Amino acid sequence: MADAIKVLGISGSLRHGSYNSGLLRAATTVLPPDVEMTIFPLHNIPLFNSDVERAGNPEPVAAMQQAIGAAAGLLFAVPEYNYSISGVLKNAIDWASRGRPSTLDGKPVAIMGVGGRQGTARAQMHMRQIALHNSLRVMIDPELLLARSRSKFDPDGNLTDADTREQLREFMAAFDEWIRHCRVDPTLRFA
After folding, report:
1. Are residues 136 and 74 in contact, defined by beta-carbon separation less than 8 angstroms?
2. What angle, rounded to 10 degrees, do the helices at 162-184 and 19-27 form?
3. What angle do CA 62, 64, 68 make, to 5 degrees?
4. How far from 115 is each of 17, 48, 65, 102, 150, CA to CA, in Å?
5. Are strands 137-138 and 108-114 parallel, antiparallel or unpaired?
6. What is the pLDDT along the chain (191 residues), one digit of tens a residue?
7. Would you give the DSSP letter of residue 158?
8. CA-based, 20 to 30 A from 178: which of 18, 49, 142, 191?
9. 46 near 52, Cβ under 8 Å?
C-alpha cells in the first residue's frame, strides 16, 4: 500500500510469553484497511549513557530512531512494573527523545496495556506524562486496559479471546482516525 498509514508498535516487555507483546502482535491482525504496522523489539537497546551517545548512537538505537521517524504513529504496549512503566520502555524513550527536534516530537501515539487488577492504569498514566514532556500527541479515548487477562492469552502470549480481539479492532480503528486527525490539525495535542 503506497499511501498506507505506517504504525510502529513497541512493547515495554522483553519476556517471550509477554501478554503486552502478544496484544501488540494481535493488533497487526486487526488493522484498518489502509494501515500497516511493524513491531520494533527493544532487546538490543543498550542502557542510555551520554558518553556512548557522544561517540555516536549504537546501531540498535539508530535503527529505532529511524523506525520512529518513518512511522505516522506509535503504538505502545505498556506493562506495569512497580506502579510505573518498565525500565526497558523508559530507556528506549530516553534514547528516542535525544536530538532537537527529537523523532518523537509531534508523533501521534496510542497506549494500551495488559496486566494486574487495574489493567496497567498507573503505568499508562505515567506513560502519558512522559509523552506530554516529549510533545507526543496522545489518543485519550478509547482506552485499552486489560486486567486479569491470563485466560485471554495462551502460554506463549498469543491473544485467544474473541471479545478482546474485537475491542482491539475498535481501538486500532480509533487510532487510525487519530493519526489522520493529527495530520489535518498539526497543532492538536490531546483529544
Report:
1. yes
2. 60
3. 115
4. 13, 27, 28, 30, 8
5. parallel
6. 558 999 999 999 999 999 999 999 999 999 999 999 999 999 999 999 999 999 999 999 999 999 999 999 999 999 999 999 999 999 999 999 998 889 999 999 999 999 988 999 999 999 999 999 999 999 999 999 999 888 999 999 999 999 999 999 999 999 999 999 998 876 665 54
7. -
8. 18
9. yes
Please report, as a single letter, which amino acid is at residue 95. Answer: W
C-alpha cell at 42: 527493544
Query: How deeply is 150 buried, as exposed, middle or buried, from its count of CB atoms within 10 A (0-12, 13-18, 19+)?
Result: exposed
Among 84, 97, 88, which Cα is nearest to 136's?
97
Residue 114 β-bridge partners: 146
The set of cell numbers assigned to 75 is 503504538
Report residue 76: phi and psi, to 5°.
Answer: -100, 130
